[in-house]
Write a structure and sequence with these properties.
This protein is an alpha+beta fold. The chain has a single domain (9-86), classed as 2-Layer Sandwich (Nucleotidyltransferase, domain 5). 24% of the residues lie in helices and 28% in strands. A three-stranded antiparallel beta sheet has the order 1-2-3, with helices on one face. The longest helix is centred in the C-terminal third of the chain and has 9 residues, at 78-86.
């Protein structure tokens, strides 16, 4: 690998309720932290409960993510997961 040993590297993946930034929200996050050798040194994954009431996910979102509203009803809120993800940044 051609990664500098002066840095650590973060891979970040979000799933959202859609692509409209004015109304759609994150519903899942995944973070992977690696060192310069490619060794995983930290990771975190969680569903995220949307702030707005959502009766159903857009069909394409459910298809792509495999998630349903029932999966998200008991998920932690963005505020709940913040302490877990802050350490990566």
């Amino acid at each position: 690998m051609l990664l500098s040993d002066k840095y650590r590297y973060i891979g970040l993946d979000f799933e959202t309720t859609g692509l409209d930034v004015s109304k759609d929200e994150p519903i899942q996050i995944g973070i992977m932290e690696i060192d310069h050798t490619g060794k995983i040194i930290g990771e975190y994954q969680s569903l995220i409960k949307p702030d707005k009431k959502t009766d159903e996910l857009k069909h394409i979102v459910g298809f792509i993510t495999g998630l349903s509203i029932s999966d998200l009803e008991t998920a932690p809120t963005r505020e709940d997961i913040l302490p877990h993800i802050e350490k990566f940044f």
